[in-house]
Amino acid sequence: MSLRVKIILITVLALLAAVIAYPKESDLLRVIGFKQNLQVKQGLDLQGGAHLVFEADLSKTPEKERTKAMEALIEVIQKRANPAGTAEVNVQRQGQNRVIVELPGVRDTADAIDRIGRTARLEFLEVSPSSQQTSLLELTGDDIQAINIDFDPTSNRPVGRLEMKGGDATKKFADATTTINKTGSLLLITVDGQPAFGPATVSEPIVDGTAQLQGNFATVEEAKKTVELIRGGQLPVPVDLVEQRTVGPTLGQESIDRSLVAGIIGLSIVALFMLAYYRLSGVVAVLALMFYAALVLAIIKLSSLTDYTIVLTLAGTAGFILSIGMAVDANILIFERMKEELRAGKSLLAALEAGFDRAWTSIRDSNVSTLITCTILYIFGTAIIKGFAVTLALGVLVSMFTAVVVSRTLLRVVIRQKWASRLGLYGVKPQEIQS
Amino acid sequence: MNIIGRRKIWYAISLIIIIPGTISLLVNGLRLGIDFTGGTLMEVQGRADAATVRQLTDRLDIKDVTVIASGSDRSLIRFRDESKPKQQEAHHQILKRELSAKGLDEIRYEAVGPTVSRDLTRNALVSIAVVSVAIVLYIAFAFRNVPPPLSSYSFGFMAIAALLHDALLLLGIFSLLGAFFGVEIDVLFVTAILTVIGFSVHDTIVVFDRIRENLRRERKPFEDIVNQSIIETLARSLNTSVTVLLTLLALYLFGGQSIKQFVLALLIGIAAGTYSSIFNASPLLVTWNNWRAKRAG
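Structure tokens for the assembled complex are given below, as produced in the milestone run.
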């Protein structure tokens, strides 16, 4: 690739990164017809909200059914945490038996915990047809062993098959159905106060604990919906809240503001230092550094369009700011090497190429060791550590690109200019040069 | 400049800095936060008075209550509540309401159960061990073509020695901070340790890389080559560390309260990492080489 092509590509990439990284990028992107809103997705510690971890008690679940039970649990929790399906709630499995629930911006954590973790909100009601009065039966979701779809052997229509837990539950169910049957009342099952099945007649007392829910379902789908509604009313396995972290919105906003200020100050100090120490090379380094910052921000924003959204946490911003330091290190390694080669009497062009080539093994080896650390942190770390590892790794990868490709190309262009031939511009004094 | 010739001085300085912390580490250990021990942490806006808080917590059967000031006008309340999770949440709501009535509004609340903290501790130890092993292997691989006298594994192990120096120094200082100022370590501290390890190796490899290159080009005694390599990379080592430390200092002074301790750990660790990569890791290669030569007689 010729130098000219490289410069054009870098300029285009820099402009693109800058446009995407720009805080009001959607206004700019709309011009070219891009409608989706990009955003830096913020972690709970930055935007405020609740991070809850529930642990399922699988001791009574047979080994083989545990995975299925956990999947069912996550589904139920998802529905409870986000009933309307609109909020940005994140429910995911962690390890063998834990479920993480992340609720951004939630104020009333107590209510959320209660909503997610309660054992059952399934109610059985007796409805009197004459007075339209309802009375609560002593049965709850805890009494249900299983509910599945079945087919009535005579009519071959889909029905729900309800199985009560043995012993006490079966007896309670038998008592309730006996009364309902005797008084000619109806049975109504509600989930969260909403009718799920019935009111239906009870043709005979059910003493064996297995009932057929005949809802005159027209299709299997309809029956399935009812079954799932009732099943969703109870958690498939009991859970306990084992971790809770709540951050108020003011604390989160403060963290963002302060990190931003710190980042800008840090970046400015580094830029001043580079300019003072490495002169013209320093100018190139600062440009590369700005490119670096824009590119990292752009990648973080673009990741929100994919399944692998990079979530920026407090530790993540620290990782980002730290990676600025590492980005500078690559430049420093190259410039120091270049100075050495100049002192040894090489021409500017030769010194530049040798400086990059020789610094490369150091840059590669040292950054690979950092990347190894990041990978291990990501594998073994908790959510907070993962966020840090991802941003640091991203920073290291991008910094290798900006130092080795961008700085190099810019310097190649600069040193070809007549005005840039004085060695003092690169921080080398004439008396230091060996002839 | 003769850095290698004075290596015993550098070792002595390291020992003097490390010993007090190590003793404290053995005697006091580390002050572990709720991330490791399980328990509850509540941060409120305003200065909470320990007596007032205890009055509330005593009624709720909450144990081990400590109240510490945080930042300029905030307080951290830490306690242990051994009741059932549902009951704990009820206690939390009562406490929140009562404190709020006294003008102390909750801004952060963290409760970590014993199983979670046990897993976290195990994961932290595993990741530190795995990182160390991975680094030795990587260096041994990256330096597989290193010219004699030393094997590539020697380079790996000396990098680990420097890394242990940095980790020990950091742990020691936080043990002292814990003993005298009540500073507790949390999950971010583990991140800090691992970052320092990564950075320490990053720094050390740059010097080792130069030693490898000079071993190929020069015909000089090993000691002289190591010394020359350290001096040639000195400007880079110092400049890089200065820029990283300056960014961290900005983060420490202007960044949020909640990461102050994390940044402090990074500041100490990275300063230590720079020292050890110049004054410990490479000199140790010479010491190791001389010891081997002497033994071989």
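Chain B touches chain A through 72 residues (CB under 8 Å). Chain B has a mean pLDDT of 85. Further analysis is deferred to the final report.
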